[in-house]
Design brief:
Blueprint lengths: L2 H16 L3 H4 L5 H6 L10 H24 L1 H18 L5 H29 L4 H30 L1 H22 L14 H5 L2 H30 L4 H13 L2 H11 L4 H22 L4 H28 L4 H57 L7
Length: about 375
């Protein structure tokens, strides 16, 4: 493959990755402006973040099977089309346009979530760590920028123009992916990886459980940590700053995890960081002094653990399968269950807090962190799925 063609595929992977969280993370700062503009009732605001997670859970298995059967490149192209269509529909001045567009965006994001690991395995078998790092860092970095800038942009140019501007990246990704398609390796159509055969694999279930636990912990803690810190006596602005540290410090471990995983004992090291970091950070929040510098350290530790946990899931999809088709199907199966837990986790944690108070919820999270580590240890020591 010529160098120019390789770089074109890499650019396509980067741009798809950059649009896998931005359409979600740019929305929370826009909820108030949308309500003020009469475009979205307060009663429906929560659906703007719940709908994408629900779509991840519903669509992931089907997308995994489609990628295995028809080729991951073709299905990613359809996902890019869905992203553009969803971003455009969001600009229709009505609540149903916003919600319908968000559902389409959720389908498009699911395509990239499930199939980019498989595409990298297919197109860059000698550079899996580098390419995985590139797209996961793009995903997290652009998502953080979207959260930080969307509210300010809305105050300057209006909420509709802000969504149009931030949604414009989906058009760029689609155009580039159209150019990428002729450069992809030809994949012989197959019947896909049988769902029954995959669900009969204990390793597939372990990876699905690991992905589900890290999703549940990340999205639930991201939702409720500000409330927990405020209940402990922090002002709202300080609690928000601590939550921002939790989100931002997932980036360093996202950056290094794929490379560390290639080294001897690398998988075990990352699993220990993910499980131990969550547990240590949560224990610090439970038992540590409620002073900003200490809680900031706990937020950073837990955030780093979340980055390691997500990235090692992508590595598991790639290392624990022998073909791109199997990677796509395993990714779809694991992400379906994982994002279902992520969608119900924040609501469930709220109910639990009413029953056992927030310290009890944090103890439950510590136990889930240790269970995640046990799953990871079992995954490391099982051979790859060969179907």
């Amino acid at each position: 493959m010529k160098s120019r063609q390789t770089w074109l595929i890499a650019l396509g992977v980067f741009l798809i990755g950059a649009n896998l969280r931005l359409p979600i993370t740019m929305i929370p700062p826009l909820l108030a402006p949308l309500a003020q503009a009469g475009l979205l009732p307060h009663a429906l605001a929560g659906l703007m973040t719940t709908i994408p997670l629900a779509m991840f859970a519903v669509a992931s298995p089907a997308i995994g099977r489609l990628g295995a059967k028809h080729g991951v490149g073709k299905v990613i192209l359809l996902a890019a089309v869905a992203l553009v269509a969803g971003a455009a529909l969001r600009l229709v001045p009505s609540a149903w346009g916003l919600l319908g567009g968000t559902a389409l965006v959720g389908v498009g994001i699911t395509g990239g979530n499930v199939l980019l690991p498989a595409l990298i395995k297919q197109e860059f078998p000698q550079h899996i760590a580098v390419m995985t790092t590139m797209y996961t860092v793009a995903m997290g970095l652009i998502a953080s920028l979207g959260t930080g800038t969307s509210g300010r942009l809305a105050a300057t140019i209006g909420v509709t123009k802000t969504m149009a501007l931030l949604g414009g990246g989906t058009i760029v990704a689609l155009v580039v992916w159209l150019l990428v398609m002729p450069q992809l390796q030809r994949q012989v159509p197959s019947a896909g990886v049988s769902r029954l055969r995959l669900t009969n694999q204990s390793l597939a279930w372990l990876i699905a459980l690991f992905f589900g636990l890290q999703s549940l912990l990340y999205y639930s803690l991201l939702t409720w940590l500000p409330t927990i810190w405020q209940n402990a006596g922090f002002a709202a602005v300080h609690a928000g700053s601590l939550a921002t540290l939790f989100q931002l410090f997932s980036m360093p471990l996202t950056l290094v995890t794929p490379s560390v995983a290639e080294r001897k004992h690398g998988l075990a090291i990352i699993v220990a960081i993910a499980s131990g970091g969550f547990a240590l950070g949560l224990l610090g929040i439970l038992w540590g002094p409620m002073v900003f510098w200490f809680q900031a350290a706990m937020a950073i530790i837990a955030g780093a653990a979340s980055g390691a946990a997500f990235s090692i899931c992508i590595v598991f999809f790639q290392k624990k399968t022998t073909t791109a088709a199997a990677t796509a199907s395993l990714s779809g199966m694991a992400q379906a269950g994982g994002y279902l837990l992520a969608a119900v986790g924040p609501v469930s944690f709220s109910w639990l807090a009413a029953a056992i108070a927030w310290p009890g919820v944090l103890w439950l999270c510590v136990a889930l962190s240790l269970l995640m580590g046990l799953c990871g240890w079992q995954i490391i020591h099982q051979p790859a799925i060969t179907i």
